[in-house]
Amino acid sequence: MLLAHGTNAAFIARGPAWVEEVVGFLARFEDDLAATSELEWTEVLDDDELAEVVGPGGESRAGWYNEAGKPLRRVWAVKVDTHARARELAGLLAGELDTWVEVRRCMPGAQRP
Q1: pLDDT, tens digit, for every residue of 62-87?
Q2: Which of 51, 97, 98, 105 could form a disulfide with 64 if both were Cys (CB 3.0 to 4.6 A apart)?
Q3: 3-class DSSP string for 16-83
Q4: What's the pTM?
């Protein structure tokens, strides 16, 4: 999995030209992954301002879990042959989004009901 973190405000602050460039890049990036059968699925998460954390006892608070860090913005589940390929894809995203991209291994059978 490739995970991009960041705040809504930080992305908006970069201006409409940057946002348009990134949206175009992401469309091409995902099309390319789909064409090579490497893209399993992707999700864009709602605004960080609307996030809510619920604890074991039902207590809740507004915000994301790791308040000191950046919230999760987008997730790509990719199926690649090597860890090096996952890092290559993460590097493409990180370079275009100008942010760190987290790489996590999905455990086998994790999507089974």
Answers
A1: 988 888 888 999 999 999 999 999 99
A2: 51
A3: HHHHHHHHHHHHHHHHHHHHCCCEEEEEECCCHHHCEEECCCCCEEECCCCCCCCCEEEEEEECCCCH
A4: 0.84
* C-alpha angle 47-38-83 in degrees, rounded to nearest 5: 90
| 39 backbone dihedrals φ, ψ, rounded to 5° | -90, 115
Residue 113 binned pLDDT confidence (cut-offs 50, 70, 90): low
Question: Does residue 21 contact residue 49 with C-beta atoms inside 8 Å?
Answer: no
Which tokens hold the place of 103?
């790489």
Burial label for 110, CB within 10 Å (0-12, 13-18, 19+), is exposed
Give residue for tokens 């086998």. 108
Q: At what angle do helices 16-35 and 83-97 cross, to 10 degrees?
A: 160
The total number of residues written for the chain in this structure: 113
Copy the structure tokens of residue 60: 């809740």
Per-residue pLDDT for 109 more than 80?
no
